[in-house]
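User: Second chain of the day. Same drill as before.
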Amino acid sequence: MRFFRRSLIGLFLLAVTVGLLAVGGNTIYSALKISWAEDDSSRPARERVFTVRVAPVTAGTVVPELTSFGEVRSRRTLDLRAPVGGAVVELADNFAEGGAVREGQLLARIDPADAQAAVEVAETDLLEGQADILDAEQAILLAQDELEAARGQVDLRLKALDRQRDLLQRNVGTSAAVEEAEIAESTARQTVLSRRQALQQAEARLAQARTLLTRREIALRDAERRLQDTEIYASFDGRLADVAASAGGIVANNERLAQLVDPAALEVAFRVSTAQYTRLLDESGALIKTPVDIRLDGLGADLVVPARLVREGAAVAEGVTGRLLFAEVDAPRGLRPGDFVTVVVREPALRGVTRLPATALGADQTVLLVGDEDRLEVAEVNLLRRQGDDVIVRAGNVIGREVVLERSQVLGAGIKVNPLRGDPGAAPEAPALVELDADRRARMIAYVEANTRIPEEVKQRMLGQLQEAKVPAAMVERLESRMGS
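Assistant: Same format as last time:
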């Protein structure tokens, strides 16, 4: 019983102790809550400040650039066709795909045997015609002599008739003699008529002979032309493409043997929208002769060739929009007909405008400016052009102010910022360079040397860059993407 009683007393004391501790802890927590409430009510709220990149807005002159894609064409292209059919008996040594030929060079010869025989027959016919003319001229001379003799006979018969009439009047002659003289005079006149008819026939024969001679001369020239057509010459300096002829082959009349292309007379055909086209017209509505840059993708070493805008398409094809424009290439080094190129057209200069990053312009054509106490303000601008990652705007009301270069959804009017000042027109950073190991460098050099589609000038430039200690990272990336590694 004594143990049980003592246990109960111990449990009672433990319960009292726990209760006292709970009351003390509650008192302390209440005091702390009151203290925390007093501290929160006295602490001021802090405003959030955003760090932004800004730059001053300056007005100046900007030359916009219009970018499109086009195809290189040759302004002088000639189909080499066989004017006559037959066997190809001779071809020039450089009569091959890409072969360079000179003006007046003999390119191909078709078997001239039939044409040569036709020329000889025509020459023989011509000689025969010339002999016919000589014969006709001699016949005319003889007919003229016979006509003169017949007319002399008429004169004699007239004198004899007059004499018989005179004798009859003097009663010396007889009427029978007069009648005989009249009959003789009539017969002489009939002979003159016959000789005149013979002369006319001789003259007609001469005219027919001359006509026949003219026809035979024409036949001879035609035969000589056909003989000349068996030889095909180059009309201008150029290169051969689409070569289809071979020595010993049989070609038909008007069959195409190859195509002669002038690589020095190139132009680029490209299409622009109607809105872009209107910006390339002068006050009279004519197309301006503005400079153009032609860029050929060269796997990191792009080839840039100058050109100039020369003309526009006469009509709009069915199913397409915009306008087809043509730019004449000034120095077509490295370009070939059929190349797909990038065309950059320089538009007329815009004055009193500024160029900003596209990230500085909002969808509502507004920009954010840094105002008093570094707080943002909203200002409207007039968007004129988009140039890649930049925009060209006319912002007369914000000239001299600082504009936020990169907008975000958290920025707006009244927001306080920490401006980081910079120049939006600063020169871009130099391209990144990477070092290549020997195996990687060798694979890229072998790929470039084996690629036949890269122009020779671009290939040499790329090989020179690959020989350097450090190579542009962009070119390495493009080469490896083409190599499939």
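The CA atoms of residues 241 and 259 lie 5 Å apart.

User: Great, on to the next one.
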